[in-house]
Amino acid sequence: RRRRQELFTEQKRRKLLPEALLQELAAAPLARAEEPSPAPAPDKRPERGSAKQRKDRIPGQVKKDKAGGTRSKGNYIAVHLKDGNLTGLHQQTAKDFIRDQLYGPGTNRTSANEFFSTANKKDPIKKAAVQFVDKSWGLEKKQRAAKFTKSWVARKMTSTL
């Protein structure tokens, strides 16, 4: 079973990496062994597996992280994290600009959240979401509505008597 496992890992290693890179990897653990390694911290976890399994393991055999760059085929591009943050920053700046232009000081407008807020509903004076600058706009319609209301109330009063 162990022989089959070793054969499998060797085949996989040959399949994944070119020969020149494999030789560099084989030489790399030897160079690391020559350098003095720092003492392990006491809070580190012990190695998993029994002593027999650790002894049977080949020293050059190191578990590799899955690197997407070694086997990736297709149209992939590398993106810096700063680029994504810049995009978000540009979007946020644009949103702030639009909000300031529409609802900033000097404009007679309010946002929907402010318009439908409970504070605005509880105020004795209800405000519209858009307040017109020219107060004469709609003045004629208001006068006609007031006149109609008066005549309607007068008709109802006379009909009930």
Task: Give me some keywords for this one.
161 residues
List the helices and strands and how they pair.
Elements: H1 2-16, H2 19-34, H3 51-56, H4 68-71, H5 81-103, H6 112-115, H7 118-122, H8 139-160
Q: Count of DSSP helices?
A: 8
Secondary-structure element sequence? HHHHHHHH
Number of strands: 0
Class from helix and strand fractions: mainly alpha
Radius of gyration: 39 Å
Structure at a glance:
This protein has 161 residues and is an all-alpha fold.
Structure description:
The chain is mainly α and 161 residues long. 59% of the residues lie in helices and 0% in strands. The chain folds into two domains: 50 residues, no CATH class; 76 residues, no CATH class. The protein is rod-shaped.
